[in-house]
Amino acid sequence: MAEKMAMAKAINESLRRALDTDPKVLVMGEDVGKLGGVFRVTDGLQKDFGESRVIDTPLAESGIVGTAIGLALRGYRPVVEIQFDGFVFPAYDQIVTQLAKMHARSLGKVKMPVVVRIPYGGGIGAVEHHSESPEALFAHVAGLKIVSPSNASDAYWMMQQAIQSDDPVIYFEPKRRYWDKAEVDVDAIPAPLHKAQVVREGTDLTLAAYGPMVKLCQEVANAAAEEGKSLEVLDLRSVSPLDFDAIQTSVEKTRRLVVVHEAPVFFGSGAEIAARITERCFYHLEAPVLRVGGYHAPYPPARLEEEYLPDLDRVLDAVDRSLAY
After folding, report:
1. Name one Pfam family in it (predicted).
2. Catalytic-labelled residue, pool 103, 130, 194, 261
3. pTM score over 0.90
4. Is 130 a catalytic residue?
5. Which part of the chain is CATH 3.40.50.970?
6. What is the CATH number that goes with domain 197-324?
7. Whose CB has fewer CB within 10 Å in the chain, the N or C terminal residue?
8. Superfamily of domain 3-184 in the CATH hierarchy
């Protein structure tokens, strides 16, 4: 039976299921135990599974990930939480030079079943270092899988699949969507982890997004429909690998593409999508691929973040520019 739950609750239930079914699964991070995490995503897990399975760590991100690597070498499946997106950089060295490289370095003999959970993105009025979108920095690194759910159902199932993966997965959780509710069927057959999904059919233009921007793109499609425009919304779900086949199929139908993400447009994931789709769909496109995202500037103070983040008007403007070609 499907149950309606918030994304934060769905991730909690997914972690609970993994802890219950596999004794090698561990949850680690700052304040994940007694406090249940700053967003209460791990609430109650330490109480039910004990301090040896749900571990409150020191405030040392490099140490958290380094310990997880050692545990993975010993056959465990650690799920580590980086408390906020901007806190991940002390662990960047461990992630890109150790975690991502171990499989290749060992000629395939060593697996690295580590999940790194990172609440990311803006929209919650937080202070500096609490609203970053660093996904492109990790997507550039071979050996890492990068995913981001946009709804509670995907959050539940993508966490299950990430934990079961023998490769390291960076699991970006859109914190502004933690409290959005959706139906979650814990007995369903999930879509493949890196498969994009069409969440709204359309014929005039494709909006491609992942994580926090999928809901915005659905709102844009609703607004455009009132003006007689039919927009298709594609939830990419995965940043690395990217489902270019799904994007190509959609673009061959609509002939236009706008990519939306919170991260800065400059050298963002939208740039890779634009380049690849231009190569693949050159004779189908009726307009250049456009991108909407954050500005090439440090994330601003909370009182200015609504000016920085993509909104309905900015995405609609890109839609209008594309349709004007």
Report:
1. Transket_pyr
2. 130
3. yes
4. yes
5. 3-184
6. 3.40.50.920
7. N
8. Thiamin diphosphate (ThDP)-binding fold, Pyr/PP domains (3.40.50.970)
